[in-house]
Amino acid sequence: MTDRATEYATSVVAGDTPTGELVRLACERHLRDLDNQEKLGLWWDVPAVEAFFEFSELHHHYKGRWARVPCTCAADPKSCERRIVLQPWQAFVGGSLVGWKRENESGGLVRRFDTGFVLVSRKTGKTHFGVIVGNYLTFCEEEPSAEGYIGAAAGHQARYVHDIFKSVVRASPNLKTRINGWHQKFANLSDESGSYIEPVSSESKNLDSLSPHFILLDEVHAHKNSSVRDVLQTGTGGRDQPLLLEISTAGEVREESICLSERDYGEQIVRGDLEDESFFAFIAEMDKGDDWKDIRNYYKCTPSLGVTIREEDLKRDLDRAIANPLIRDSFKTKRGNMFLDVFSGMFDPDSWRECDGEIDFKAIRGRQCFGGIDLSQKVDMSALALVFPPIPDEERWIALVHYWIPALTLEKKALKDKPLVRWSRDGLVEIAGESRVDYEFIRNRIASLSERYSISEIGFDPWKATQLADELEKDGQMMVEVRQGHRTLSEATDELVSIVTDRKLCYGNNPVVRWNAKHCVAREDENGNRIPSKKRSRGNIDGISAIIIAISRALAVDSAYSQYAGDDGADVVVTG
Angle 187-174-148 (CA atoms, 0-180°, nearest 5)? Predict the structure, then answer.
């Protein structure tokens, strides 16, 4: 009789169970290894797999609709409807983690995998699955004084998951006899062997002294960096078969995201591009080209769909996300298990992502454009946008954005905004000055750009840039004051939003511009006029502000400049 883990793999490879490509590849790896155990020096331990499955059914639900039914364990434990029954995908993952063995240096059999990475959408039962694996490895493998840790970036998150462990044990009468209570003083799960499970985080002290046998990192996407994982993992050297289990849903694309890094590493392994026999990856995602609006594709990223989450409930939330761009990104990451550049709200994310054309620099050389400069305070980032309006046979607006930052500011910001270092190295953000913005550097840079492009005029905020504007004016630039307010910028803001919505913006795939756009939040006045808000935005938006200033000047010229200036003479002033 085939075990449930292998049954799942066989069903997936045969096409009977809908999954994405990466899960199928993981299943093919399992079946291929079964056929080549002796050659690979591996052993598929079916009794260990069955023992894990038997232990898993000692766990009971403690909340939700399954917890409402009465416990019948006293009469017949195997038929109790409060049992947590492993879903087929969970049986495959759990069976793989405990069932695959290898021979160690002493000739003993130990578990093959020391790292398990599981990426599935929200509401698939991944945390309860982590509870089962954690309890089995910590209390059922006869590891002397096994130490199990729930690692999180913040203490409250680690304690939350630890509380789930305790709640499951409290609700499971036969499990409590296997795990002999918990240490009341520390409220940690423990038994007579000296084994225990407790929560730790980056806020915990003395992490270096720990000797983990089992580590659970839940919602890895929320970890700001790898510090907790690294310090726990380096403490496993004294254990024969430690396991790090990383479980998560997708999240925001961040340079320092360990979740995205582990996902990419796992993909290379299941594709065969990398060889790492100790790393197990289960990555439940839609395939490239799948329509996120089609409910059928959610079986790929939500392998418990129809069990832990009803299809009608997911369909309702999907319809809401299709209709409401403000919740779309959150839905895609949590329910669609997609890593995204998450946008704050001013731009429709899907529309922005399609504004991804490259700039033909030869074609725009000598072409008319309008400038907008967002000059920072002396120590922050500054930006200049050159905007090229559409011309015949070219429907797109082209935005060429340049950034400058003082060296000392770059050094300080690099601790939080790590991509800035790479962007500086790649020439996308230029160093202009040491501790303060060097206006002369920017002036010379603009002079160089004016030799390449036909800059009709440059809009600027007189509150910050009067000194630089005076110098540029001496160089022959047409400088126009554009005060920052709804009267002067709301039309240009709406125009930029419309340009993006229509997929008619080309910004050359500049990651700094994209970084600005995803942070950008608008503020409205009592008449519904909107402009970008630096206070409300989550991060830097200087490039977007500069683009809007430039667009405001392009619109002014296009709609009979003299009349426009007469109507708003208090806000728009031509200097020189």
Answer: 40
